[in-house]
Amino acid sequence: MTQFDPDKKDKTELGINLGAAYASGDLTNSDDGAGIGLGIGLHLRKALDHIFSARVDLNFASYKNSLESASTETKTTWLGADLMGVITLNNFKIDKGEKKTNVYMGVGPGLNSFKVEATPPGIDDGRRYEDVDSKLGVHAAFVGGLAFKVGSNMSFGIEHKVYVPVGDRADLLDGVKLVSGGGSFSQSNDIGHFTNLSLNFHLGKDDMVEPLFWVSPLTVMYKDLAEVKARPKLDLTDTDGDGVIDMLDQEKDTPSGAPVDTRGIAMDSDGDGLADHEDKEPYSAPGYDIDREGVAQIPPPATLTEEDVIRIGKAQGWDAASKMAPGLADWFLPIVHFNFDRYDIKDTEVSKLYQVAMVMQKNPSIRVVAHGHTDKVASNTYNNVLSYNRAAAAIDHIVGKFGVDRSRFVLNWGGEDSSLIDSSGRNMINRRVEFRVATNEAEMGRPEGPNAGKGGSFSGNRDAGY
After folding, report:
1. pTM for this entry
2. Which of 3, 193, 238, 198 is nearest to 97 (CA)?
3. Which of left, alpha, beta for 307 (phi over 0: left; psi -120 to 50: alpha)?
């Protein structure tokens, strides 16, 4: 038997019904009764919860009716489909566990099509026998039954179904109408019956539970209570005093003061096989052997003497006497940008000048060109002076703030002639000072023209000549 799990989906019941079909109506008002025929059906039943479920039925029935005192008989062929709501009655009784029986009742609407053949048609013994053609009609369906479980995926049962046609065909199910004394017909609605045995299968995947109408609503509660009862009593004893109670502690004799993990096991942070409280070096570098105290045995790093460096450099074609190594002129140095019509250094650009200064301090043999530029808003004469002022301001900042000698700079200016962006208006990308390692460039003097641009005050470094 599959253990019920409320978190899993339940299976669907498929039933095969076989039994006796007959109609009660005009003929059953006589002493002879109605004829019993064969009924076959299929149904699908899906639980909505432990008590309510939905059921769809398809049914076929064929039966004959006759009177011993009359020479006429009728044969009825019925085909119907029903949609019913079903209630599991014994789930109103609260008990635990899976049930062995299922008592249920249901009701719902249905569609039908039936025909009746009268042999021969006519009036006989106060009753009129007539043929009834197939026609779609509606009916009310009722069912009641008792099912027995024979396994986790099968059950069998006995049930009785009743069909009550409605409309102008409600008295034609047996093909007979009563004739009153005046020759008119009296309405006496017929009722269809289907008493059957059902063989039911529970359809679904292996990990699904049986249909909920086979399970008591309190099963989940009993299961949860059983789990709670099975749990050990809470014991807060902590024998080794490591902060993890004995119920959870996987190492109950940890030395006092030793750091432990959430399981109560002494920690080994570097994974070298020695617990931290015994390890002289709890965070040894990985990949090295350790000594008895847990210290990694790292070999000393290889060192190069000055002679080694010179020897290697010469082998690579490096001239130690050269002031600039090959490729140094191709170094990328930052570009400093300016506000419109200004040459003072923006706060956002100070870090770039710092980077230039650091390169020059670490490479004392190089000289650097500071090349000023502008956008194309003012006249060419004005822009030449402004570009000069910007290059001078950048050099002054590095000299004054970082102590780089002024003689290591080459000031160049280009005005608006070397725009990065082809634009005749304001453009911050074009308002710049570029830095590069000097090769053969010469210092450019101030261009002719009045002062251009606006700049803040500047305090220089006395030792640098400012």
Report:
1. 0.48
2. 3
3. alpha
